[in-house]
Write a structure and sequence with these properties.
Largest sheet: 7 strands, parallel
CATH topology: Rossmann fold
Shape: globular
Oligomer: single chain
Number of domains: 1
CATH architecture: 3-Layer(aba) Sandwich
Strand content: 15-25%
Radius of gyration: 20 Å
CATH class: Alpha Beta
Distance between the termini: 49 Å
Order of helices and strands: EHEHEEHEHEEEEHEEEHEEHEHHH
Number of strands: 15
Length: 341
């Protein structure tokens, strides 16, 4: 009987990592979860899922994995501005996102792990967004050097190049997932914006709809962006684990530009708290910070045999189920702790 692969997940206590490991366990994969989160460690202990605390910037920590054998490594560990204040310097982004990735790649090489799948943000294409056309993998990067995400994006671009280097020079299949905003229950209470915690618009819309409060729509409501549901991202990882002889960059996206107007109206349909019609207030004079972008996902469809299953309405319906059963409540606890430390 053929066994399912043995998978090591770095960044296991994060949003995508938690959903991914849950699904891998359901599908009888052998799993080792790794992170530096105390809350995450306690969560995995409660689930009886093997866990090892590894700081990816510390090469000595990888000695904890001596003699272990893995069929694939999932790399989700990263420092990004939405999760932290401005206490971090450019050197910290390089240390964690670049040097940490190199340490993982060296571990792959030394342990003869044949596959690594690295999740990366889409922000190093921000210079292409103004074209208002679906961005393909072959369109390359268009790095911006101003703004709070610039150093994060620079470091992730370097990390992507490191994955490509090890793919080209060693017997390692390096797969890079470029992800637009990933939605799902867990991380959308608050984020850091310019170093300060703010309530997300997505969470505000949901809370106002549930409490039958007017939904304010600021600025240009026709602006839209490509978002992807966390469970669709998880299914892409599992497809990539199963595929052989694939490598390189893949857009894991919905390939659909969801406008602000569509987003608010759909949230109202799913979450409005009574039988009365929802109330919308158009406020075009007020600015919003939503960027506009969309990605072509045809390469992932063709080479990974993957495509998203959730449109925005079905995503919200599933989100509501996750909210009601609170299965991943530890993500909320972890998020709240992050904003008081």
């Amino acid at each position: 009987m053929k066994r399912n692969p043995n998978i090591l997940v770095f960044g296991a206590a994060g949003f995508v990592g938690t959903y991914l490991i849950d699904e891998l366990i359901k599908q009888d994969y052998q799993i080792l979860a790794s992170d530096i989160s105390d809350i995450g460690e306690y969560y995995y202990q409660e689930q009886n899922i093997p866990y090892v605390a590894i700081d990816i910037t510390n090469k000595n920590d990888f000695k904890k994995l001596e003699n272990a054998q893995f069929d694939a490594i999932i790399h989700l560990a990263a420092l990004q501005p939405a999760n932290y204040s401005f206490d971090y310097s450019p050197g910290d982004y390089i240390k964690i996102n670049v040097n940490g990735t190199l340490n993982i790649l060296e571990y792959c090489r030394e342990s003869k792990t044949k596959k690594i799948i690295y999740a990366s943000s889409h922000r190093n294409t921000s210079g292409l967004w103004h074209k208002n056309i679906p961005i393909k993998e072959e369109d390359g990067r268009a790095q911006q050097y101003e703004g709070e995400y610039s150093m994060f994006s620079i470091s992730e671009s370097a990390a992507q190049d490191c994955v490509e280097y090890y793919n080209a020079n060693y017997d390692i299949n390096g797969i890079i997932f470029r992800l637009p905003p990933v939605y799902g229950y867990g991380p959308h209470l608050e984020i850091f914006k310019n170093g300060k915690p703010i309530r997300t618009g997505f969470q505000t819309f949901i809370e106002n709809a549930m409490n039958c409060r007017p939904l304010e729509v600021w600025g240009d409501a026709t602006v839209g962006r490509d978002i992807i549901y966390v469970k669709d991202v998880v299914s892409a990882f599992i497809k990539a684990i199963k595929k052989y002889n694939v490598s390189g960059l893949y857009n894991i996206s919905s390939a659909y530009r969801l406008t602000l107007k569509e987003e608010v109206e759909t949230i109202a349909k799913v979450f409005w708290g009574n039988n009365q019609p929802p109330e919308f207030i158009s406020m075009p004079e007020r600015q919003h910070s939503m960027d506009s972008f969309v990605y072509d996902n045809s390469k992932a469809k063709m080479e990974l045999d993957w495509e998203p299953r959730y449109d925005f309405k079905n995503m919200l319906l599933d989100y509501k189920k996750e909210l009601d059963n609170n299965k991943f409540g530890f993500l909320i606890k972890k998020r709240k702790k992050m904003f008081v430390e």
